[in-house]
Amino acid sequence: QDNSFEQFIINYCNEKLQQIFIELTLKEEQEEYVREGIEWTHIEYFNNAIICDLIENNQTGILAMLDEECLRPGTVTDDTFLEKLNQVCATHQHFESRMSKCSRFLNDTSLPHSCFRIQHYAGKVMYQVEGFVDKNNDLLYRDLSQAMWKASHSLIKALFPEGNPAKINLKRPPTAGSQFKASVATLMKNLQTKNPNYIRCIKPNDKKAAHIFNDALVCHQIRYLGLLENVRVRRAGYAFRQAYEPCLERYKMLCKQTWPHWRGPARAGVEVLFNELEIPQEEFSFGRSKIFIRNPRTLFKLEDLRKQRLEDLATLIEKIYRGWKCRTHFLLMKKSQIVIASWYRRYA
One Pfam match, by short name (predicted)? Predict the structure, then answer.
């Protein structure tokens, strides 16, 4: 119920993870249809980039203003930090405060004076500003790290590398918020270079008990995790896509014209293959470099046909080998019989 600085930066990380989820699933998928020249009607979805900008913007972001309050001279308190938020973020549609200049919150009795509220992608969260400045300004002073580095215990010395006199940095140590922001940026950079798979966990109840299913709680999670938009994009789009070359290589044995070798362009070979298999036109579309298949059952059908064809080819290979082996044995026996007969007649 009481959310402070720790929960704020955790929710910031969740926002960044949700942002990369949107980019890699909803945004990237729809942009791929446009790049490939597939006829497509854009599906609207909520992009939480505006919330991420509210928190991490270098000039007007909440973390930037918190750092500014921690570093500026004079009397600095949590209330002065909140006043600064009220001035800079007053008109932001995802920021709410009792002291905000935006009059629509002045009569909101559910929001205490010492709090602010952010409308995250998963719902509204209220934060107590008490302790924000102190927790963000939790610095390890240089003399302390130097003293720990001089310890005789190797583990303690290894835990404070910044205390090494050879690596002294006269700059002010970074705040907790800026360190966390840099860590999140590194995480996002690493995830962007990968091909992540997402598993969305739905909590059926708040009691952590079995056989209890809270409909309202589940619907809330589904709505705010972006699953509805994801399902709409998936249902309107194509379940499977693959470049023409590997697609032709995998399924070419299903068509006499493409088996065993296709001499023309890969796209033309895929068109011949799909026409030969009489797959309905509405089940696939040809992009500039990929074939798009709409329903999974079409892909399952192709896989079943391929499996059956491989069994037939295996049977054919076995039949030809057995025929060759039997014929070779027969010819050898026939040759041996002629030799034996010729020698027998010579001495008869």
Answer: Myosin_head
